[in-house]
Design a protein that fits this description.
The chain is mainly α. Helices cover 67% and strands 0% of the residues. It is a multi-pass membrane protein.
Length: 108
């Protein structure tokens, strides 16, 4: 077991040092100046083009996905219908609160 661990660690280190040896260093700086998938042109290294509206909507969707994962087992088990009803009411109230607060509005 120890021999396998040492052999795999040695292979990883050899591959790492080979990649560092053959790496072209001049392309590293140029890659940081290219456009990303979002289309923003990077003027400097700070992360200024960050949208808080996108973050809040992504966070709301993440919370709703987790709640959906919690709710799904109760859909098939009708003995716990009161728990399903409570979770659905909480999900509805959370959506209503986000909507009334204006967090779901998208501003340009």
């Amino acid at each position: 077991m120890l021999l396998i661990l040492l052999l795999s660690s040695l292979i990883i280190l050899v591959l790492y040092y080979l990649s560092v040896l053959f790496m072209d260093n001049k392309n590293i700086v140029e890659d940081g100046k290219k456009e990303f998938e979002c289309g923003f042109r990077a003027e400097n290294l700070s992360r200024l083009p960050f949208s808080m509206q996108f973050f809040s909507i992504a966070l709301v969707f993440l919370i709703f996905d987790v709640e959906l994962i919690i709710i799904l087992p109760y859909i098939f088990n009708f003995n716990h219908m009161y728990m399903f009803s409570i979770m659905m009411i909480l999900l509805y109230l959370g959506t209503l609160l986000e909507w009334m607060e204006g967090s779901l509005d998208w501003y340009y």
